[in-house]
Amino acid sequence: xxxxxxxxxxxxxxxxxxxxxxxxxxxxxxxxxxxxxxxxxxxxxxxxxxxxxxxxxxxxxxxxxxxxxxxxxxxxxxxxxxxxxxxxxxxxxxxxxxxxxxxxxxxxxxxxxxxxxxxxxxxxxxxxxxxxxxxxxxxxxxxxxxxxxxxxxxxxxxxxxxxxxxxxxxxxxxxxxxxxxxxxxxxxxxxxxxxxxxxxxxxxxxxxxxxxxxxxxxxxxxxxxxxxxxxxxxxxxxxxxxxxxxxxxxxxxxxxxxxxxxxxxxxxxxxxxxxxxxxxxxxxxxxxxxxxxxx
Length: 295
Fold this sequence. Notes:
The chain has helices at about 1-15, 20-25; strands at about 30-35, 40-45, 50-55, 60-65, 70-75, 90, 100-105, 110, 120, 135-140, 150, 155-160, 165-170, 185-190, 195-200, 200-205, 210-215, 225-230, 235, 240-245, 250-255, 260, 270-275, 280-285, 285-290. By secondary structure, the chain is mainly beta.
């Protein structure tokens, strides 16, 4: 505790005497709690019921935590049956009643309720694909109305399903905006009712109806891990940092390992979930609950 307190005081003094421009661009956080639990955590999501969900593809498990970091429940295990996962890539749980698990190898999305009971399976038939080889989902996101937006990798596409889990339309892919998506990585829904699709060096912004609004070029040369949102802004996670940008692509702030007080040997960022006043960050093995330092 004393070491953390001294480190915090040092950083406050350091930033006071740092030029204003750097203060505006960099954001300092303190570790509220650190949970070492995972083999290979790859995705995190949460809901307004103060529940946090972490997907671990090292053991094909989904874990539910409280907002304070207490482990509440888990489900999964490698396999092909219901409530088993194979090639789990993404968890989306922002809509209060549902959790969606995207499985690349099983070529399906399992929809669970908050008690981890199976509700629906979205497969190639539900997605109106010719056969199983034509449906390879890798990430999904939920609108405030319960609509599901899915990106798939075999023929890079963005698909929309309605609140009843029925396929509604292809927003980008083989039949519309052909060749627009090249190597999609992740997807997120924003408060202004737009959808952001992350690629290696750009972000596509669509509205809920599927209209392409704009393209944002990413200046960073490294390949991002994931994308998330806070309000109408975006958070892009790289292995070594997190960059916050607005809807025009302008940088708001930057989070780096050396600006996280109380974390030792921190590296390999994977994904984040923002829920005021906390930022939930996963690395390969850890879940960190961060709180921003205000000056």
